[in-house]
User: Which sequence fits this backbone?
């Protein structure tokens, strides 16, 4: 039951991420930095997708995804269509994992030590969900702030 609830939340908010990317009046604004904003919306979207594909897809579900975290922040001027495709791939990763997970798997230790301490898979999944929403809020702020000046 918890797996389906988590799946719903992740998919809902990944779709919100797609909507935020679609709402930019000018696609190039996604890549703008200013003194108040340290990451672009485009880079944050790439980072969120890389994060989920790595920790849920590869680490928990055994996909062959190879994360290049530095590129999540260094790649620029990728089209909104390409970013939305990346988000759709992340939705597939989330669906595949949560559709196949056993509820008891959440009690197991997460397979890698991410924060220099052991944690359950449940703990890491909750962290990933919070991380998604933290950056989703930043993207929303970025869009509203920069679109207002466009």
Assistant:
């Amino acid at each position: 039951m918890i797996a389906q609830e988590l799946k719903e939340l992740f998919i809902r908010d990944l779709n919100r991420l797609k909507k935020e990317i679609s709402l930019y009046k000018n696609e190039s604004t996604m890549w703008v930095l200013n003194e108040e904003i340290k990451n672009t919306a485009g880079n944050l979207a790439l980072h969120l997708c890389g994060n989920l594909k790595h920790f849920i897809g590869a680490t928990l579900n055994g996909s062959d995804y190879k994360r290049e975290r530095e590129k999540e922040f260094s790649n620029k001027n990728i089209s909104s269509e390409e970013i939305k495709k990346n988000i759709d791939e992340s939705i597939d990763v989330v669906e595949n994992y949560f559709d196949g997970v056993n509820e008891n798997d959440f009690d197991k230790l997460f397979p890698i030590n991410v924060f220099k301490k052991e944690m359950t898979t449940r703990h890491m999944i909750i962290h990933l969900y919070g991380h998604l929403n933290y950056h989703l809020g930043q993207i929303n702020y970025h869009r509203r702030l920069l679109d207002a000046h466009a």
In short: Residues 121-148 form the longest helix (28 residues). The mean pLDDT is 95. The chain has one domain: 2-148. The chain is about 65% helix and 0% strand.
